[in-house]
Structure formats: structure tokens, C-alpha cells
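Task: complex structure prediction.
Instruction: return C-alpha cells for all chains below.
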Amino acid sequence: MHEMGIASSILEAVRKEQLLYPGYRATKVGVRIGEFAGVDGESLRFCFDAIVKDSPLAPLELGIEARGGDELDLGWVEFDDAECDDSAVEVAA
Amino acid sequence: MIQVPVERKVLSENDRVAAGLREALQSTGTLSLNFIGSPGSGKTAFLERTLQMLPQGTRAAVVTGDIQTENDAIRLARYGYPVRQITTGGACHLDARMVEKHLEGWDLGALDILFIENIGNLVCPTSYDLGEDAKIVVLSVAEGEDKPLKYPGIFRKAELMILNKIDLLPYVPFRPELAREYARRIHPEIDIISTSSLRGTGFDQWIDWLNARRSRKCDREVLHACTR
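Output:
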């Protein structure tokens, strides 16, 4: 199942990207998968979720954009300001 | 929340190693071919017959991949060329780092052709660049002729399709013209050669393709590395 190796490569890329943005936390990574890339999106998501949950990057969501060629590209990473934790904010009614 | 564009290959680390391999093989004028096909498509037998039929003086070597066993390396080593086995222990494809590691200690300058036999699989090996000059897909007539439609990725990327085991055609309901049509539907420029490794059928055409491909590489690459 080469999707596991690909999931590991995505995590490694996010880990490197994370180092460039101290104070922020990666929340989602977007990949583009071409129809001829030989990669099954659902298998990739399964593998990604399996390895991310035990990694320092958890929780991290995988976004998949289907494309037409044979590309297998990392497109973007979304970051939240780690010091601005929405869950800690109480909204006064 | 901020979204940062990254815009790079997911397998950029593999691609980095593959680029290094390609550069090394280009500097020595070594033609590198990556064979991909289903388990049982006849890749090893095809390479055995190829090694038997290479023009005298051709300096070739083989790196062969399998999940377990060194059986293929033992078979291929009988023909007097250097052979190394990559045993992946479960991985369904070779990657550039595995190939790089198994080329260590070989003088690439002393090689005209490097054959890489990938793990038997039509999907996973397709994603991994091994620094090769060309991917070659091996399809046997014991499979379905619609494999090019079912696994378009490799047929799209391969420069050549070997339609193998044609000695079995009288015994199987395989329509070779349909397989060719499907392959060209996916990749109109793909070259196709029909072979029987058992009988040697089609191997003159294959050796001609190999020589032409090597000449084409030498025309493009460092000419002094291609003196033979």
C-alpha cells in the first residue's frame, strides 16, 4: 500500500512547513491528485488519518483536490494562530 | 487562519534522490530502464532472455526488486552480468533511495545499460521516479487485454509496452489487437513490441529498440560517455 508512504511524505512536508511559522499550528493540508497518479484518495485519507493521530501534528486534516493529469502535489497548508485558541473563548450571550 | 501555498511534489524527497541518480547516469551515458508489470507478467524471464541476447561487449547490470526472496537475482546472475536484489520486506514499489543504495560500489561509468525490475504491481511503482530514462510496462497475454484501461497511469507514463508470452496466444482468449488499441487510446505514442521470452520471438525487435534508445540518449547526453 504505497499510500502509507505518500501519507508519511505529506506529514513530513507539513512538519517542515510548520517550522517556518512559529506560533502557528497547521490544521489542514491540501494535496492535488491527478487521475493518472496511481493514488487512491480514500486509501490515502485512511493512511493519513491513521498516522497523523499519533503524531505531534494531530489534529491535522487532509484536503484532497482531484485533478486530470498525473500530478501528485502538495498545494497548501492552513495554519491557525496557536496562541488564539477559539475553544478557550467564551461567547457572552 | 492563514493558508500558505506550498506548491511542490508530495514525493519531493524521492524526486530529489532520483534527480541525483539521473544526473549520475547521464554523466556516464548509462541507459536506465525501469520495468513495471503485474506479478507473473514475465518481467524476470524477459530480462533473462534479454541478457542472453545482448550484443557481445554490452556492459549491462540489473537491479531487481521483490518483496521477499532473492530468487530473481539468482536467476538473472546466471548470465554473467552484475545483479543485485532489492528485497523490500513488504513495500509494493521501489523508490529512488533503494536504487541509490543498491548501486553503491558499482562503477556506473562501466555500464552501458542498467535494467531495473520493479516489484510486480501496476499501480504503486508508477508514482516513483527512479532516475530512469524510460519506464517499460510488461503486459502478458495471460492477463486481460483491458489492463491499459484499468491501470492507465503506467501505460500513460511508459515509453514502451512489451506484450509478453505471445506463445500462449493459441491457448488464451486474449485479443492482442484490442490490447494495442487500448494502450494507444491511453498513450497514442507508446511503442509496442510483442515477445515470447520462452521462444525468443520479438527479441530482435526489442534489441533494436534498445540500441536505438541508447543511441538517442547518447545523442542528447555527454557524448564522450557513449563511446561504444
